[in-house]
Design brief:
The structure is a single chain. The chain is α+β, with helices and mostly antiparallel strands and 431 residues long. The protein folds into 2 domains: 313 residues, no CATH class; 87 residues, Winged helix-like DNA-binding domain superfamily/Winged helix DNA-binding domain (Arc Repressor Mutant, subunit A), CATH 1.10.10. The protein is 41% helix and 10% strand. Strands 9-4-12 form a 3-stranded mixed β-sheet. The protein is built from 17 helices and 12 strands. It is elongated, with a radius of gyration of 34 Å.
């Protein structure tokens, strides 16, 4: 346990109010159900309530952060090389004040990262958290376990513009909070049973153009590998969490900054890999559609920081099958079909010189009279047609053809043959 840096509270109800935990009780008594959504900053599709002004403001969508200074003062423990954050869900009812307070104290130390457990006395942690703390130095963020899974995927829900949220029939939530501090009253009456599926579809729509520009998602089947990837919120949660922490580390500190110092432990040693430093202020991580769009693009870049995303996309594009596409035309389908037909082409046009014999189009061609040749000649310009006629007339030497056509050498004839060959391939594939 870290020595002399903890601030403990005595009045649990006071604690809830101080860190902003929303409850359904006020000084005037319980909040009526009809007013609960308004109190929580929620607007649901089809609601009879007036449309809130914040939906169409420059501050929506929005994600915020609460400074650890509210609990720990101006000095906190920071991991010098934080490990990647992991999310752990715990059952949490809104009247479990002790658990909520402990999770708020734990989560707000996002910069302490994997060293959070050293800040707490294991005997003071609720049993749900003690099990995790006992596993060792893990950078865990606790979130409530709910059917909607809102708290797990809030970082992917709150970059969505209001038009996307409305299109998929999702509720508007005025602001998210990262890491989770409070708000277990985001209950099922505000989030429908199909909220997870709708959230996945909304994120897919939001992120798709970053992965497949020029080809809408409707041009692919639901089983297309990239569509499965864009629906996989577990894939996108780590990179968006990294982005949020990068943004937060740019925030100024509370009060006058201090020089980083070693972290003393109760046994007289110091905590390796961590320092005492000034606490950062809390603020909006993003606010408004412009900021949210930048966070989305940044998330895509972060997902590809090690080339992982790019490798997945390249592998999918290189191994597509026709069943990946819907009936709708897309650039991706056009590219696929062009490559497919090129690879499967059964036509190979060659010009061969056979001394003393009649020239043929291809060693494997089946020609009835001059029908194929005549139809094809109609597509060529005058000089290219002359090359084919000369070859078909028994002039099998390119040098001889060049002399008849007035060229200094056979180079020009070779170039014309290459162009004729490409035209022939296309012609015979189409016929």
């Amino acid at each position: 346990m870290v020595k002399n840096i903890q601030a403990r509270w005595n009045d649990s109800e006071g604690d809830c109010r101080e860190i902003g935990m929303s409850t359904t009780m006020t000084d005037e008594g319980p909040i009526a159900d009809a007013d609960l959504d308004e109190f929580l900053g929620i607007y649901r599709p089809g609601s009879t309530q007036p449309r809130p002004e914040w939906i169409d403001s420059d501050d929506f969508p929005r994600m915020s952060n609460l400074s650890a200074a509210f609990i720990y003062g101006d000095v906190m423990v920071k991991a010098e090389e934080p490990t990647r954050a992991e999310y752990v869900t715990v059952p949490m009812r809104h009247r479990q004040v002790e658990l909520q307070v402990a999770i708020a104290e734990w989560n707000i130390l996002w910069e302490t990262a994997q060293f959070r457990r050293y800040v707490f006395d294991p005997d003071e942690l609720p049993k749900e958290m003690t099990k995790v703390a006992a596993l060792g130095d893990s950078n865990v963020v606790f979130v409530p376990r709910t059917q909607s899974r809102y708290f797990e995927y809030a970082p992917l829900y709150h970059p969505l513009p209001h038009a996307t949220v409305e299109r998929f029939g999702l509720p508007m939530v005025r602001s998210g909070m990262w890491p989770f501090i409070s708000g277990t009253e985001m209950r099922s009456n505000a989030l429908s049973a199909d909220f997870p599926a709708r959230s996945e579809a909304a994120w897919d729509s939001h992120i798709w153009r970053h992965l497949m520009p020029g080809s809408p998602a409707s041009g692919f089947t639901k089983d297309d590998p990239i569509r499965l990837l864009t629906h996989n919120l577990d894939f996108w949660l780590p990179p968006v969490t990294d982005v949020m922490q990068d943004i937060l580390t740019s925030f100024p500190v509370v009060g006058d900054p201090i020089e980083p110092k070693p972290v003393p432990l109760e046994d007289g040693s110091v905590l390796e890999g961590a320092v005492l430093m000034s606490t950062r202020v809390g603020s909006d991580i993003w606010a408004g559609e412009v900021d949210a769009a930048e966070v989305t693009a940044w998330t895509v870049d972060q997902a590809d920081a090690d080339g992982r995303l790019r490798g997945i996309l390249d592998a999918v594009r290189s191994n597509r099958i026709e069943d990946d596409f819907s009936d709708r035309w897309t650039f991706a389908r056009e590219d696929f079909e062009r490559k497919l037909y090129r690879k499967r082409s059964k036509v190979k046009v060659t010009f061969v010189e056979l001394t003393g014999t009649i020239p043929v189009q291809s060693p494997e061609s089946d020609v009835i009279g001059q029908t194929v040749t005549s139809d094809f000649l109609a597509l060529l310009n005058e000089r290219d047609r002359e090359v084919v006629v000369l070859l078909n007339s028994g002039h099998t030497s390119l040098t001889e053809v060049a002399e008849i056509m007035g060229y200094a050498n056979h180079s020009a004839v070779s170039k014309r043959l290459a162009r004729i060959r490409r035209q022939a391939e296309h012609f015979f594939e189409m016929n």
